[in-house]
Design goal:
- The complex is a heterodimer.
- Chain A is α+β, with helices and mostly antiparallel strands.
- Chain A has one domain.
- Chain A has 3 helices and 3 strands, in the order βββααα.
- In chain A, strand 1 and strand 2 form a beta hairpin.
- Chain A starts with 12 loop residues before the first strand and ends in a 5-residue tail after the last helix.
- Chain B is α+β, with helices and mostly antiparallel strands.
- Chain B folds into 2 domains: 95 residues, no CATH class; 153 residues, Phosphoenolpyruvate Carboxykinase, domain 3.
- In chain B, 34% of the residues lie in helices and 31% in strands.
- In chain B, helix 7 packs across helix 9.
- The longest helix of chain B is centred in the C-terminal third of the chain and has 17 residues.
- The model of chain B has no long low-confidence stretch (mean pLDDT 95).
- The chains are: A alpha+beta, B alpha+beta.
- At the A-B interface, strand 2 of A face helix 7 and helix 9 of B.
Chain lengths: 96, 290
């Protein structure tokens, strides 16, 4: 994924981090979500314009899969996970 | 026409009514409440009066109005005192956005504020009434007013609304509890209002630091069980129980987050009133020892 294609997260979002989860509030829609910590880290990276490689690496770091990330199948799986996050966040209205 | 004025915490109320039942209700349950000074700003000008026209003879009804606006359909005239209390709840819930308003009872002991958010049937008001009979300070049995400027909870004590079996349970629990007349056949069943203790009214200008949020669940024939609740879950549940969370927007989100960060949160199941009282008292006692 190129920087130019990175989805933009809504500027109206507010975050509050709990132990393993993050409360995300959209002050425009008034919707409140409780999201996994990893998912919100990905959101914030997207906000900074990070590309797919950074997002995938983040998943490996979180899951402590550093030793597996040379494996094509694992990379593919992580890419799929990022895409699923993007789709579900778009459905929630968190992404443009 | 009677004009009855009182102060509940920082909120001032002026009630106009021609109904003797409403007047007697207020004279009993607001007996200890101070009146605002002549120069004080009155937050809520409300009236409770019979509906005029043929209804007066056929099926008499009562109407509640706030600043001349009638937000509800009329109710049977026997329910006039309850209509006043419900109407005033509505006024506070919709017009005091200097607070994040959480649907919860709030009581205090030894400086520890305990929030008891509860869905209908959870036993929130019964538990609150019993704690108050035991000497806990009543801040509110219905709405916790969390200041958006200092994060403290401000009292707005009012009579405690009890329903059906709870009325008898509290009457048996405390012979000192003072009740208004039972109002039968409302949409909530039979209800009666228990007076707020004088000591709670005297200290009604003193805010409290919230220390615990306890979600009570009355479950007959169950065991008493106090379970720590993840703060993230408590946050989501409390947000659902806040009347003006979305009106306050980002401010409401931040105030709620600050609250959750500084309190301990519990789920609390109990089979009877005595177990519930012991459980809540234990939470504070344990904290005081630590």
């Amino acid at each position: 994924m190129q920087n130019s294609n990175t989805p933009l997260i809504q500027s109206s979002l507010k975050f509050h981090t709990f132990e393993n989860e993050v409360a995300v509030y959209d002050s425009v829609s008034g919707k409140l979500h409780l999201l996994p910590f990893l998912g919100v880290e990905l959101l914030k990276l997207m906000q900074q314009g990070s590309n797919m490689c950074v997002l995938v690496n983040t998943i490996f770091t979180f899951n402590d899969f550093d030793n597996q990330k040379e494996n094509d199948a694992d990379i593919e799986e992580a890419e799929m996970m990022v895409k699923q996050f993007i789709d579900s966040y778009r459905d929630l209205g968190l992404l443009d | 026409m009677c004009n009855f004025k009182f102060k509940s915490g920082e909120l001032s109320v002026s009630l106009q009514t021609s109904m003797s039942t409403v007047k007697q209700h207020c004279e009993l349950v607001y007996k200890h409440f101070p009146s605002p000074k002549e120069t004080d700003f009155v937050d809520f000008h409300v009236s409770v009066n019979p509906v005029k026209g043929y209804r007066r003879w056929l099926r008499p009804q009562v109407q509640f109005s706030f600043d001349g606006y009638e937000p509800f359909a009329p109710l049977p005239i026997e329910q006039a005192p309850a209509f006043f209390e419900w109407g005033l709840n509505w006024c506070i819930a919709n017009n005091t956005n200097q607070y994040l308003i959480i649907h919860a009872a709030i009581v205090e002991k030894n400086g520890y504020g305990v929030l008891l958010p509860g869905t209908p049937g959870s036993g929130k008001s019964t538990l609150c009434a019993a704690l108050v009979c035991q000497g806990w300070r009543l801040l509110s049995d219905e709405m916790a007013l969390l200041s958006i400027t200092d994060g403290l909870i401000y009292p707005a004590p009012r009579p405690i609304s009890l329903k059906n079996q709870s009325i008898q349970i509290i009457k048996q629990f405390s012979s000192e509890a003072v009740f208004g007349d039972i109002i039968p056949d409302t949409t909530k069943g039979n209800i009666a209002y228990m007076c707020a203790p004088k000591v709670s009214v005297i200290s009604q200008m003193i805010p409290v630091v919230p220390a615990f949020i306890v979600f009570p669940h009355y479950r007959a024939n169950s065991e008493t069980k106090l379970t720590p609740l993840a703060k993230s879950r408590a946050f989501m549940t409390l947000a659902e129980n806040a009347f003006n969370f979305n009106i306050l927007g980002s401010v409401g989100f931040e105030v709620m987050a600050d609250l959750i960060d500084k309190v301990e949160c519990y789920d609390f199941s109990y089979p009877d009133l005595i177990s519930a009282l012991n459980g809540i008292n234990d939470i504070v006692a344990k904290h005081e020892k630590e």
